Amino acid sequence: MNFRILRKDLKRKKSINLILLVFIFLSAMFIAGSLNNFTVIMNGVEHFMEQSEIGDFLIVTMGGSPGELSENDKTIEQFLENQEQVENFTIDDNLFLSESQLKGKNGKKITLSSPVMLNHSEISQQKFFDRENREITRMEEGTIYLGQRMAAENKLKNGDMVTVSSDNGFEKEFQVAGVLKDAFMGSEMMGMQRCIISRGDFQELLEESGLPYGRLYSLNCKDIGAFQEEYNRCEFYEMFGADRELVETIDRCTDGLIFTMQMQEIIGTLSAAKAPKKDGKGNIYADMINHHMPMLDAMQTASRKAFKRSFGY
């Protein structure tokens, strides 16, 4: 009986039912496309991480100088050397740039949505790729690869000139060689972007520019969970400290896959410990950078680590 009623109803309202059928087909197509996009991004990000050779755990610090490490960096290195869960680790030098230290052609101001971390192209932490997915192995002196956001925001293209300067009067001009694909710092949620130059140029800036200095640690671990438990008990601070899994998740989110308000709330909660070192906590260098940096804001203060330990993170 129910079948007969349904058949009669379908005959009476053919146009409405046809429209509903079209919408059902369209919905099915969109769902199938979304699932396909989900699979592609999930697999693509993981493959990109493997090709870039990202370590199991990454730490970024700021402070000290090339000739004299900060006490914080000394503490971190001592911890890593004595940590049985660490199979090996590498150390690379970083320099940090803000808007006031960058200019475009004819002195035009360069706008940054987040500060720039500067490395040379041959660092140990990871491999870099250009827009055509070719690995960047060596660079010519006087050239620079820009982060994707920096290039897009300032409409910079290959052949344009970018000038790096510092408060001590140092100034050096670079020609844009291309745009960088960066597995670690490529996401907007990292709150920082990266540019790379040649090893020789980087050494010159390291010795003469007086730009803010820091270190980048990349670790391979036997048991990442056991290492993180020990790491979270430490009292040193860092600009960023997280495992590869979190970096992958951040990349997937900002590829437009699952970036939701709930995710923003989680990052906001983890960023609650931001505080310059005025009360004995926080990062003494935080005042040097006036941008909002979601991941930099989440500095590892003792209170935040206690919070994480309480919830088994």
* Alpha plus pi helix count: 10
Choose one word for the global shape. extended
Give a quick account of the main beta sheet: strands, pairing sense, barrel closure.
10 strands, mixed
Ends distance: 58 Å
Mean pLDDT: 78
Question: Which percent range fits the helix content?
Answer: 25-40%
Sheet/helix structural class:
alpha+beta
Unreliable spans: 256-267, 271-304
Instruction: Please state roughly what percent of the residues sit in beta strands, choosing from under 5%, 5-15%, 15-25%, 25-35%, 35-45% or over 45%.
Output: 15-25%
Strand tally: 10
Folded structure, characterized:
This protein has ten helices and ten strands. With 313 residues, the protein is an alpha+beta fold. Among the domains are: 2-51; 88-215, no CATH class. It has a ten-stranded mixed beta sheet. A hairpin with a 5-residue loop joins strand 6 (161-165) and strand 7. Helix 2 runs antiparallel to helix 7 (244-254). The chain is extended, with a radius of gyration of 24 Å.
